Amino acid sequence: MALRRMAARALGNPSGSPQDEDPLEKAAKFSKEMAAETIIENEVAKKKAEREEAEARAAEARARARRADEGGGGGQGFQIKGGVDLGTINLQTEREKAQKELEELKNRADEQAQATGAENASLRDKIHEQEIKMLQLTFQGQMEGLTKVIERMGTQKNFMEQYTEAMETAKALGMNLPSGQGGGLQLQIELKKLDFEQAKALKELSRAEKAEERRWNLELKRLEDEREAKRAELDLQRERNAMWGNMPQMIGAAAARGIMEGRGAPAAQASSNAGKVSSHLEAPWGEAGEFNCPECNEVVGVGPTAKAAACPKCGIKIPIRRTGEKPGAAPKPEAPAAAEGERRE
Amino acid sequence: MPDFRNLGNMAIAGFVGLVGPGMAAGFLVQLLKEHKVDVQVISQWIQEGRSLWGEMSPDNQQDMIALGAKLHDISWMTPDWAIEAVRKDLPAIASLFLGWPKARHWLDRQITIIHRELKKES
Predict the structure, then answer these.
(1) Is B47 in contact with A341 (CB distance < 8 Å)?
(2) Is A244 exposed, middle or buried (0-12, 13-18, 19+ CB in 10 A)?
(3) Interface test with chain A among B55, B95, B111, by most A beta carbons within 10 Å
(4) What confidence category does residue A265 fall into, taking pLDDT thresholds of 50, 70 and 90?
């Protein structure tokens, strides 16, 4: 029974889903397991019978030896009386004989026990081998089942194929539709097909509507862009026309500005700082250069002999204090007009 | 029938006369910038009494003559006009003429010389 339980445990399906196995494989596996179990049981029963027989013989031999001991001991036992001549009985010899037989029996029993132990060990090994084989078979079966599941998952079938397959499987398993549902399986499949086709057509219609709407929006946008471009062009044309129409006025204004800037500007642009005197600057004689106005930061130029500078922007006067020697000791050869200007200065 | 050609010529002449000072001011500034004239250079010209007309290249002189011929009236060409012409683009030179009397006298002389040269050519 222990072996049966062990075999049953070994044959147990670890996945727990007997529906996943192929029925033919399952039957083959089961027959293999049954055959292995029968062989094991036969061997065990045979060895058990042999062992029992050996033990019975040993018990008989022990009984006979005990009886022999009791007969030779002179104690209370059988008392043979009467006149039967039993001949010459050498009790010593009989006893030795019985002891020899006993020893032989013991030896034989030991040998048989040893042989039985060895056979048990070999049977145990065989059982282990069978268990390993069964485990291998189970594992192989599970692997094949998994491979089939993966292959089934790998193959992309459409909805109708999957549905048809499922319906066929259900039919093979004896799961019929209720009679009240009507129409039969084929009709149901056709209805499903129609539903699927309808959903597909609706989806395509929706897609076409979206595309049409997108195209229409693009067309609207293009027309709007064109309208904007034409409007911008018209505005530009209007501006051009206005510019050409106002050209004489613009020319007149520019000319007037030029006249005003060209003639009366210095007096007009002299700012409120005109006549104002800033703090003086120091520079050596003969040095010309530029500096920034202390009031407005405009660039102001200074001549080599100038004693004052005037800002062209704010009109402020900046006195220049000359340091060092005046280089006018040796007069330069200048034009008469220049010399006159120097004298005036 | 009105003489449209004469009217057109008059209009052009009037227009040139109106915009003439501005054009001449731009010409002067461009001239000074092209010759890289700064305070140091013009101070040297003033100290040495050099003539602005003489410093111009023959091409520039011809341009000035052509401009004067078109403008007819160049009475607006004064030292103040010259100072105002360079005030914006060359403020250091303008301030030199404003603050240094010797420079102002030199400018007066140069304007006189230019007037004389233009009148001579016209």
Answers:
(1) no
(2) exposed
(3) B95
(4) very low
Domain that holds residue B35: 4-121
Out of B15, B46, B98, name the one closest to residue A312 (CB): B98
Other C-beta atoms closer than 10 Å to the C-beta of A329 total: 6
User: Cβ–Cβ of A341/B80 closer than 8 Å?
Assistant: no
Angstrom distance (rounded) from CA B83 to CA B103: 11
Q: Is the distance from CB of B93 to CB of A301 less than 8 angstroms?
A: yes
Residue in B24, B103, B105 nearest the CB of A344: B105
Statement: residue A331 has pLDDT above 70: no
Closest CA to B26 of A286, A117, A262: A262
Q: Which of residues 58-117 of B touch A (CB under 8 A)?
A: 76, 78, 80-81, 83-85, 87, 91-96, 98-103, 105-106, 109
Q: Which amino acid is at A94?
A: E
CB contacts, 8 Å: B80 with chain A? 263, 265-267
d(CA A281, CA A289): 12
Torsion of CA B67, B70, B76, B77, to 10 degrees: 20
Q: Which helix (H) or strand (E) holds A310?
A: strand A308-310
Altogether, the residues listed in chain B come to a count of: 122
Instruction: Kindly report, residue by residue over B69-92, the tens digit of the pLDDT.
Output: 877 778 889 999 999 999 989 999
- The total number of structural domains in chain B stands at 1
CA B105 – CA B13 distance, rounded (Å): 33
The answer to whether residues B36 and B44 touch, using CB atoms and an 8 Å cutoff, is no
A to B CB pairs, distance under 8 Å: 142
Contact A310 B19 (CB under 8 A): no
| Span B31-69, pLDDT tens digits | 888 888 899 999 999 999 999 888 888 888 888 888 788
Q: pTM of the prediction? A: 0.39
- Residue B122 tokens read as 């016209």
ipTM here: 0.78
Point out the residue among B21, B43, B84 whose CB comes nearest to the CB of A304: B43
Summarised one tens digit per residue, pLDDT across range A112-148 is 999 999 999 999 999 999 999 999 999 999 999 888 8
d(CA B27, CA A255): 16
DSSP state of A277: B
